[in-house]
């Protein structure tokens, strides 16, 4: 979407926050003329502004409208679904428990839909600390990039404490994150080491490292070859490599080429066939 906007309007095109949490992708788009800014107020009038894949709070959308900026909403459709659920639960008078990471762009955007009645939890212990009246009508939502296993424990704790708690119509966790976690679960037991290609601020990349470690394989997060410690790969016979949902395939292949393995086997857990259309303004 950023590339399509550059093609239509020419550089510079402004993007609020990182379009995806991946250092390499952001650097490549910056070289093409994208300018990444923190807030709407940093975008000049007369130039298009894209909202990142992580979604935005209604207050951000209003701020852009007040400045009459041309905006393109690059929010992931799966995140948009969670925003829609937040508004629906708020209309029903629910106290919303949001399972997510404090300060993450996606959490800030979703919680902004009903900030006065949304409560963040990150652990099972946080569930016990929730200060909600006994008669409260409660619902829960989930950040899309979390680990399936870690989220299950928190949901179990919520259901034990609030037996009538309302849930999303469909699971909130992103199919791409879920699929990669499944693949790593199946791959890691065959590996002496797993390297996850992704950036340090990528939630779903960290989840892949945790999944590999939970399956008994040492695992590290790297942005590229420069971050691989020689001691990690010393004596390793079978090395697993994967990329986060926000990692460009070229970054994965760059690491494979740098390692110069004797052979490469592509490990496939399942095939993805989900496609999303560009917004009308960019088609």
Record the SSE blueprint.
Layout lengths: L1 H8 L3 E4 L6 H10 L1 E4 L11 E3 L6 H9 L4 E3 L3 H15 L3 E5 L5 H7 L6 E4 L2 H6 L8 E5 L5 H14 L13 H13 L5 E5 L5 H12 L4 E4 L7 H4 L5 E5 L5 H11 L24
Parallel strand pairs: 1-2, 1-3, 3-4, 5-6, 5-7, 8-9, 8-10
Helix pairs in contact: 4-5, 8-9
Which descriptor suits the 3D outline? flat
List the domain count as a whole number. Answer: 3
| CATH-derived architecture of the largest domain | 3-Layer(aba) Sandwich
The level-1 CATH class of the largest domain: Alpha Beta
Topology as a string of helices (H) and strands (E): HEHEEHEHEHEHEHHEHEHEH
How large a portion of the residues is in β-strands, by DSSP E?
A: 5-15%
- CATH superfamily of the largest domain, by name, is 4-hydroxy-3-methylbut-2-enyl diphosphate reductase, catalytic domain
Poorly predicted spans: none
Roughly how many Å is the radius of gyration?
20 Å
Main sheet, how many strands, which sense, barrel? 4 strands, parallel
